[in-house]
Amino acid sequence: MIDWLTIKYRPYIRPNIALQNGVLRLASNTNYSPVLLQATVKFNKMLAENSELREELDHLIKERSHFNQLYQQLTSRLQSGKKVIVDLIEQATLAYDQREEAQSKLQALKDRGRVDLSVHSQEMRELQRQLDHNAKLQEFLGIKGQKRVMADLEERERQKKQNQKESQEQMIAMYQVILEKIKACSGEAEVDRLSAQFIKQEEENFALFNYVNELNNELELLQDQVNELKSKIEGQHEANRERAARHKETLGELDAEVSFRMRDADQSQDKLDATNKILSNLLEGIENIFELVRCDNAPILELLGNSSNVSSHSVMLYLGIIERRINDLLRLALYRNKIAAMG
What whole-number distance in Å separates Cα of residue 4 and Cα of residue 6? Predict the structure, then answer.
């Protein structure tokens, strides 16, 4: 910038005025008015402050870009952590629903097994009672049918035989009645078929008994599976709690880091606002100096466009015009000093 200004305004700089390293220097062997010296000092200070503020502004812009990048990374990590937590909650809910469904099925199987076992046990007791009755009846008939050889009891034996015969006839009649009732109930007239049906029913009862035993075995197996599933669910819950604790700790660290970065960003924003305010004041001061020294902005109106105010983009143009105007004023002051010295 300084070299460009030096080259641009070299025709207007006298031997006793030099622009070195962005500072306007006056020759020491010439007498100048205090106003000119004070204006030169203020102008040099303004150029130095402007350079420092521009460097600080560039540094703050880089810091802000770095902070925005870190903030985006932390936000992405936070969203990933939240997504993992949601997935874990869904998995735990699904495992709990499966556990409830398995327990419901197990309870239904237990209830059905108890009902079937009760019905089959009652049927088996009834059949056993009938078998015991028939066995006792056969034993009784066998004992009654034995021939007794006691001579003095022939009459009694005959009477007993008669009674036995009558009893057997009554028993046969009763059995006949029972058989007829069974035929009427079963709808089967032939005894062989009825006997075959009874044997078939007995086989079915035995098959049902075996089925009940199988159900009990399946219930025990299901109970073992349920216990194993409970153990797995408890282990998964424990793992989920540990994982959730780790994620919570990580989220806490991320929140702390985000808070720290936010505070840092706020401080940087405050510095940036302060710098912008200082820059605005500098631009306003440059504009005041521009008006104070009565500079003409006609050469740069086409470059400025619609805005004629001093901005960060057009400040160098205004400074160039101010520098040129100051050089003109310095030449005028030197000329007047020479005239005064000659007079």
Answer: 5
Q: Are residues 229 and 327 in the same domain?
A: no
Q: Are 287 and 312 in a shared domain? A: no
Q: What is the pTM of this model?
A: 0.31
Residue 206, CA atoms < 13 Å, CB-side half-sphere:
6
Residue 33 to residue 335: CA distance in whole angstroms: 12
pLDDT at 308: 67
Cα distances (angstroms) measured from residue 312 to each of 27, 205, 304 = 32, 103, 12
Q: For residue 309, what is the DSSP state? A: S
Token digits of residue 238? 């424990």
Question: Model confidence over 43-96: pLDDT tens digits?
Answer: 888 888 888 888 888 888 888 888 888 888 888 888 888 888 888 888 878 888
Give residue 188's pLDDT band: very low, low, confident or very high (50, 70, 90).
Answer: low
Per-residue three-class SS string for 35-60? HHHHHHHHHHHHHHHHHHHHHHHHHH
Domain that holds residue 240: 31-292
Contact 157, 150 (CB under 8 A): yes
Give the whole-angstrom CA distance, residue 238 versus residue 99: 16
Tokens of 115: 């009902």
Q: CA 259: distance to chain centroid? A: 21
| Residues contacting 271, CB < 8 A, separation 6+ | 60
- Phi, psi torsion values for 18, nearest 5 degrees: -135, 145
CB–CB of 261/71 below 8 Å? yes
Question: Two tokens at 330?
Answer: 């310095």
Same domain for 249 and 320, yes or no, is no
Say if CB 113 and CB 297 are below 8 A apart.
Answer: no
State whether 43 and 26 are in the same domain.
Answer: no
Distance between alpha carbon 188 and the CA centroid of its chain, in Å?
A: 72
Mean residue pLDDT of the chain comes to: 77
Q: Is residue 77 within 8 Å of residue 254, measured between CB atoms?
A: yes
Cα separation values, 132 from 126, 129, 210, Å: 10, 5, 23
